Amino acid sequence: MTPAPPSTDLPTGHPRAIVFHGSASIAGAPVAYVIVLAAVVAVLSFIPFSVALSAGSSFPMAQGVYSLTGWLLGPWAGVAASGVGALIGIFLAPHTAGIPWVTVGGAASGALFAGVITSRRTHRWLTTVLIGVVVLEVFLFYHHAVVRNGVRPGVFVAAYLTHLIAIVGFILPSRRWVGGLIASPDLRRVALGLFLGTWMAASLMMFGESLAGYLVLNWPDELFLFFAGIIPVEQAARCGIGAVVGTGVIAGLRSMSLVKPRDARY
Hints:
By secondary structure, the protein is mainly alpha-helical. The chain has a single domain (25-256), classed as Arp2/3 complex 21 kDa subunit ARPC3. It is built from ten helices and four strands; from the N terminus they run E-E-H-E-E-H-H-H-H-H-H-H-H-H. A two-stranded antiparallel sheet has the order 1-2. Strands 3-4 form a two-stranded antiparallel ribbon. A hairpin with a 2-residue loop joins strand 1 (25-26) and strand 2 (29-30). Helix 7 (161-171) packs across helix 9 (187-217). It is globular and about 80 Å long. The N and C termini lie far apart (65 Å).
């Protein structure tokens, strides 16, 4: 008896969509990632680093990785990671806390600025708003220091020249070129992009922190002269930290089969 040939009929019916339900997320980044990076920020908050804000205490090495959270998680999830990590650091490492609300706000802004330094044309409205905020900060700082308090214009510009150059770079399309370096498959280009990107984002962060601190403390001309020498050195150190730590982290993430956050830039 010859066996019947196999049936070629296919199942009929409406196609079903298969949806994978992942873990909870913040702006497209898994909450677990945000928690881990917040912990990194909190740990680095123990290491004294900056003195340039002149708010009566030192400031943490974590300033070098605030921007990194914006590239690893995206702008809004980066804000959560850096902000929460800095807030924890205020309680656990008060010797680097400075003015608490300035520290937390600066940490969050560093990640936010970094998140829009990208080669892709995303978050256009956010980028436009941030550019407007930065321009307003420059006007307010200059007016309060030079017009109201009589600081010499040349002294003011010399003190914050490092940050002002970074502000110009952020406003111009050069930020997309830096974002392209960070997204490059070549780790040497990634390291360069992280160095330049940290320079931009950290400068924007520190300029805002300096404005907030100056509105409270109104330090004298002599301190502006001190800043002219110390700010470039400190900024180079922040950029070095961001480049070394960031390149290692990105190289590790690229070699692992982990879920990439929706707005990640690496």
